[in-house]
C-alpha cells in the first residue's frame, strides 16, 4: 500500500488480500502430537487407556491478518487536509463500539470488566517504568515504586508474611508470576523435579521447558484438583531428588483448588521434609479464597515458597498484570547488581509497566477487604444460580465448592462459542462468573443457549455429548447413565 496513488485514504479501508488456502484459520488440526511431546516433557508413567493417546480436534481462531488495521505512510498534504486524523478517529470510534458489543457477550474468561479509572487519566502522558528491584530506587526517576510497594505490602499482609520477610514485584501478567515462582524453586533446589497436576495452567509446563527441568504430571480428581494418592506414588519414585510443586488455587478450566494442607502432608510423609518448594498459582481465586467462609487458608505460615495472582482478573485492572510474593531469604540467589540502574534486579522482565501498580493501588484503596468480600459473595451466588438454571434446562453442569467457574457441556455451534467468548476443552466449556456478570446477562445467555440447543439435538440431530468423565455422572445429564 505504501506509495499508492491519490491521498491514500481510500486504500486505508481496503481489506488485505485473502490468505493462501494453506493458512486458512478455520482449518481443523486433527493430527497433533501427544501432550507429552507438545510440552517437551517425558511422561514418567502411562497406564491403561493413557497408552493410546487419542487425537483431539482443535478449531483455531480467525487469523487476525484478515481483519487488521493496516499502517499506511502519510501523504505530503495530510497535515493540511486533516483527513488522516479524521480517518483514525473513525477507526477508533468503530473499535470502541466493537469493544462495547464484545463486552456484552464476555463470559468464558476470568476478567473483571466492572471498573472505572477515569481519575487516573491525568497520568497517561507519562512513561512510567519500574526498572529493577521495587525496593531499591534506581537512576530512572519516572517510576511508581511508591505504589508498587504499597500494593505488595497489602498482599503480603493478606497472605500473612511480615514486611521484613517478603520480596515481590508487580509482574506483567499471571504467567510471569508462575515463571518467577518456579524459577525461585529451581534456584533453591537446582536438581529438583517439578510436579504439577495435569490440569495446571500451561505456563507451568512452559516454565519446565524454559528452565530444562524434569517435570512430572500428576493425575487429578474429577473435580480437577490434584490427586494426592498419585502424587505420593510419583514422589516415592524420585525420593533422591527435591520436589518443586505447583499448587493450583483455582485451575484454569474447572476452578478446582488443590488441597494445600494435604499436599504438604503428603510431602512430609514421603520423607521430603525441608526438601521441597511450593509455588501457589492463585491467578484468579488466590484473591477470592481469603474471603470465602470456611475456605482453607493460603498462608506463608505454612511451608510455601511463593504465591502469584493476576491483577487483571478479579481485581479488574485494564491491562494485564500480576502480583508475585516470595520469601526474602530465597531471592538473593536470583538478584544481581545492575550498575547503569544503580539498583538490583531479580525480576523476569526487568522493565515493568509502571501504570499497573497505580491502577491496583487505586482499586485496593477503593474496595478494601470488605469490598472484595462483597464481590466474592456476589460471584459465588450468581455462579450457583447459573449452575442450577443449566441443570433445570437439562444441561449437565458442575460447580466446585470454592469456585465461581461453572462447567457445562460444550455448545455444538462454534459461532455460539465465539459470540459468548466461551473457553472450551474437549466436550466441556465454562463460564467464569465475575463481578461484572449480572443475573440479567446470565439469563440472556441461558435463553439463547436453550433456544439454540433445541435445534442442535433431537431425534434426527443426535444427542448431547456425555461429559461424565469430565464432571462425574451426578452432574452429567446426557441421559445415558442411571442416576
TrEMBL record:
Gene3D superfamilies: Aspartate Aminotransferase, domain 1 (3.90.1150.10), Type I PLP-dependent aspartate aminotransferase-like (Major domain) (3.40.640.10)
Region entry Disordered, spans: 1-50
Co-factor requirement: pyridoxal 5'-phosphate
Entries under PROSITE patterns matching the protein: DDC_GAD_HDC_YDC
Keywords on record: Decarboxylase, Lyase, Pyridoxal phosphate
Biased composition (Basic and acidic residues): 41-50
GO MF assignments: carboxy-lyase activity; pyridoxal phosphate binding
Transmembrane spans: none
Reaction it catalyzes: L-serine + H(+) = ethanolamine + CO2
N6-(pyridoxal phosphate)lysine PTM sites in chain numbering: 313
GO BP: any one term: carboxylic acid metabolic process
Family (UniProt): Belongs to the group II decarboxylase family.
Protein name: Serine decarboxylase
Organism the protein comes from: Rhynchospora breviuscula
Lineage: Eukaryota, Viridiplantae, Streptophyta, Embryophyta, Tracheophyta
